[in-house]
Automatic annotation (TrEMBL), chain A:
<dbReference type="InterPro" id="IPR039651">
    <property type="entry name" value="FixC-like"/>
</dbReference>
<dbReference type="GO" id="GO:0071949">
    <property type="term" value="F:FAD binding"/>
</dbReference>
<dbReference type="InterPro" id="IPR059103">
    <property type="entry name" value="FixC-like_C"/>
</dbReference>
<dbReference type="Pfam" id="PF21162">
    <property type="entry name" value="ETFQO_UQ-bd"/>
</dbReference>
<dbReference type="Pfam" id="PF12831">
    <property type="entry name" value="FAD_oxidored"/>
</dbReference>
<dbReference type="InterPro" id="IPR049398">
    <property type="entry name" value="ETF-QO/FixC_UQ-bd"/>
</dbReference>
<keyword id="KW-0285">Flavoprotein</keyword>
<dbReference type="Pfam" id="PF26311">
    <property type="entry name" value="ETF-QO_FixC_C"/>
</dbReference>
<dbReference type="InterPro" id="IPR036188">
    <property type="entry name" value="FAD/NAD-bd_sf"/>
</dbReference>
TrEMBL record, chain B:
<dbReference type="InterPro" id="IPR000049">
    <property type="entry name" value="ET-Flavoprotein_bsu_CS"/>
</dbReference>
<comment type="similarity">
    <text>Belongs to the ETF beta-subunit/FixA family.</text>
</comment>
<dbReference type="InterPro" id="IPR014730">
    <property type="entry name" value="ETF_a/b_N"/>
</dbReference>
<feature type="domain" description="Electron transfer flavoprotein alpha/beta-subunit N-terminal">
    <location>
        <begin position="22"/>
        <end position="219"/>
    </location>
</feature>
<dbReference type="InterPro" id="IPR012255">
    <property type="entry name" value="ETF_b"/>
</dbReference>
<protein>
    <recommendedName>
        <fullName>Protein FixA</fullName>
    </recommendedName>
</protein>
<dbReference type="GO" id="GO:0009055">
    <property type="term" value="F:electron transfer activity"/>
</dbReference>
<comment type="function">
    <text>May play a role in a redox process involved in nitrogen fixation.</text>
</comment>
<keyword id="KW-0249">Electron transport</keyword>
Length: 435, 283
């Protein structure tokens, strides 16, 4: 057992854990952070796009030394069938601003930097140290943690669970349920090395400019899924994700789907000549608002992916992680500053701060969307992409068919596939869920 | 007893890549590790300390980021870490490296007590020369025991040590007097897992950081590129083999397909045609 007591123990050195540790230590609290990986970031996987404003609230001048890959000037949304994509591209020179809003990052590098910042403000970080158990008293109050190192028990006033989507401690201690197959996605991703000049000419960008492509379509075989392709400085991240329950039902293999995705005629040319550097897979919480567990209790709070904070619609995971970590840190600091104990009663401040923030408001707004897309996945991810492609081809091919017939044919193909009522119902439901 | 263990931070060779165009080694983004051979030296040192008492100092020469490796060594249980870092050391070959390390060990002796044993790994995985250990021994006038597979006995009162050393065709059992330099063979022990106390201490430990001047090195001409007679003429990736895999249909398998298979595998090897004919007849 370690004699020394800490104000807070943070479990995990991902976005949420680092944000919490930094927030508390920079306000003078004595923080111990425990990470099972060899170094911070070694276990962390993300696409990855980082939104600046959430990090600015923690480290305002992060642009000075954070390892950022490219700031994004162009977003493409593609609806794909097996041989085509129908796309919307948005590109604006307004994104070339002094302080850009979105960056691609490589988590292994970024997390090392974030962790160094934490240590600079006084966080004590131990890597390769796995927390095996929460230490609790008879009343259930969390007093500290046990680790897999000899003499590994440590005590603190509060434990911040930033253990990630698949963390075992919370569920084991009965603080929250394990993630359910229908509320988590399994995403697979590859990093492909390409020289910076090749990436720049291929995507028509210069300097640190970057492009993001996000796709839905037949590649997910009718499952609820999203594909992505992000430009880093000297590499391209490409991947896709679908709900775990769908994978279980369809018996599709993620790697085979990714292979087919990379070979798609719209994607293969973007990756041509590249060398695959790494392959990664990760779970993503997709259940939204309805899956958020109890967030605090006597001597503990839960943040980030472990708390199921992810906005699937806007693909915001890490910034919700950072925000929840920061708010937990602020709440804990305020309670400590008032010399109050860190109990269920005082820690509800964390929940209050979350409710007041964009985080809970956004998740609440889209609370019905995950369910809708899931129950209608065959239409949204298989039928509509095919119909869109047919419609586009019919419009673009000039072959002497009267235009009125073409339009009728297109409309009929939609109705045949989904029925007039089905189409209207999908549109209304989507609008309602979005509202 | 005072033991000094020399370690080196090296790129993880399992993850190293050669640039497809320039043929240079791409170190960017490649994780660094403690040279795996050095871990056997460190564990041997920690075991001796645990048994006989004393302290273990780890020493490395490298860029400031080499501190990570030292901190890791402290997590395993080393007592003190010294980082020798200076731009004068950049580009050192084994001659210049062993010079700088020998000087630093002398300084460690003055500052923290004369070492009884200096340990190094058998060699590093990035240089593979196995010259630095013996180089230090020569300069420090230490007896050297290389390729040691086991520390059999240590008698501090009599100042004697007995070790087993792997030699061609067998194991030598050698006994000599302290102080001594030992280069440790791989697979001789298994690195321990540091305790929580060690991990906490390592996370906060002050790393002793010395420049060339701090280490008492006056002749910087013997350091770094200027002190290194070794010249790397060229680095290149060997050309990929042009042999292509070939498919032989074996449905249905006949005598002929078996012969074709044997011919495809052994056909290119000169001088075994007779054996192949004989094999065909026996079958």
């Amino acid at each position: 057992m370690i004699e020394e007591r800490f104000d807070a123990i943070v479990i995990g050195a991902g976005m949420a854990g680092n944000a919490a540790a930094y927030t508390m230590a920079s306000r003078g609290l004595k923080v111990l952070q425990l990470e099972r990986g060899e170094y911070p970031g070694s276990k962390n996987v993300q696409g990855a796009i980082m939104y600046a404003s959430m990090l600015e609230k923690i480290i305002p001048d992060f642009r000075e030394d954070a390892p950022l890959e490219r700031h994004l000037v162009e977003q493409r949304f593609w609806v794909m069938d097996d041989r085509s994509h129908t796309g919307m591209h948005y590109r604006s020179d307004d994104f070339n601003e002094d302080k850009p809003n979105r960056y691609t990052i490589v988590r292994a590098q970024f997390d090392k930097w974030f962790s160094r910042k934490c240590r600079e403000v006084g966080v004590t970080l131990l890597c390769e140290t796995t927390v095996t158990e929460l230490i609790r008293n008879d009343a259930g109050k969390v007093l500290g943690v046990k680790t897999d190192r000899r003499g590994g028990a440590v005590f603190a006033d509060v434990v911040v669970l930033a253990e990630g989507v698949n963390g075992l401690l919370g569920p084991r201690a009965g603080l929250r349920a394990s993630p359910k197959p229908e509320t988590v996605a399994l995403a697979v991703k590859e990093m492909h090395f390409l020289p910076a000049e090749t990436i720049e000419s291929r995507f028509a960008i210069k300097g640190d400019e970057g492009v993001v492509i996000e796709m839905v379509g037949t590649f997910s075989k009718g499952m609820t899924g999203l594909g992505f392709l992000y430009t880093n400085k000297e590499s391209i991240s490409v991947g896709l994700g679908c709900l775990v329950s769908d994978f279980a039902e369809t018996r599709e293999s993620p790697y085979a789907m990714l292979e087919a995705f990379k070979a798609h005629p719209s994607i293969a040319p973007l990756l041509a000549g590249s060398e695959c550097k790494e392959y990664a897979a990760h779970l993503i919480p997709e259940g939204g608002f309805k899956e958020i567990p109890q967030l605090y209790g006597d001597g503990w709070v839960v943040v980030g992916d472990a708390a199921h904070f992810n906005n699937a619609v806007h693909r915001e995971g890490s910034n919700l992680a950072m925000t929840s970590g920061r708010l937990a840190g602020e709440a804990i600091h305020r309670i400590k500053a008032a010399r109050d104990p860190l109990t269920k009663d005082t820690l509800k401040l964390y929940k209050q701060l979350l409710d007041e923030s964009f985080l809970m408001k956004d998740l609440k707004k889209y609370k019905d969307l995950p369910g809708l897309l899931h129950t209608n996945s065959k239409n949204f991810f298989l039928s509509y992409p095919q119909l869109m492609s047919q419609a586009a081809q019919s419009y673009l091919r000039v072959d002497g068919t009267p235009k009125i017939d073409k339009e009728k044919k297109t409309l009929r193909s939609f109705i045949d596939k989904r029925s007039r009522l089905g189409l209207i119902s999908d549109a209304v439901k989507l609008a309602m869920a979005w509202r | 007893m005072h033991i000094v263990v020399c370690i080196k931070q090296v790129p993880d060779s399992a993850q190293i890549r050669v640039h497809p165009v320039t043929n240079t080694i791409m170190r960017q983004g490649v994780p660094t590790i403690i040279n795996p051979y050095d871990l056997f030296a460190l564990e041997a040192a920690l075991r001796l300390r645990d048994e006989h008492g004393g302290t273990v100092t780890v020493l490395t020469m490298g860029p400031p980021m080499a501190e990570d490796s030292l901190r890791k060594a402290l997590t395993f249980g080393a007592d003190r870490a010294v980082l020798l870092t200076d731009r004068f050391f950049a580009g050192s070959d084994t001659l210049a490296t062993s010079f700088a390390l020998a000087q630093a060990i002398a300084k460690i002796g003055e500052t923290f007590g004369t070492p009884d044993i200096v340990f190094t790994g058998k060699q590093t995985i990035d240089g593979d020369t196995a010259q630095v250990g013996p180089g230090i021994a020569k300069r420090q006038k230490l007896l050297q025991l290389t390729y040691v597979s086991k520390i059999a006995e240590l008698d501090l009162a009599a100042r004697r040590i007995k070790v087993e050393r792997r030699a061609e065709g067998g194991v030598q059992v050698l006994e000599t007097r302290l102080p001594v330099l030992i280069t440790m063979l791989e697979g001789t022990n298994e690195m321990r897992r540091g305790t929580m106390v060690d991990a906490l201490r390592a996370a906060r430990a002050e790393i002793v950081t010395w420049s060339a001047k701090d280490a008492g090195i006056e002749d910087v001409l013997k350091c770094g590129l200027r002190g290194s007679p070794t010249v790397v003429k060229r680095v290149f990736a060997p050309a990929a083999r042009s042999d292509k895999a070939q498919m032989i249909e074996i449905q249905p398998a006949t005598r002929d397909t078996a012969d074709a298979l044997v011919a495809a595998i052994f056909g290119g090897i000169a001088g075994i045609e007779g054996d192949l004919v004989e094999l065909h007849q026996t079958l």
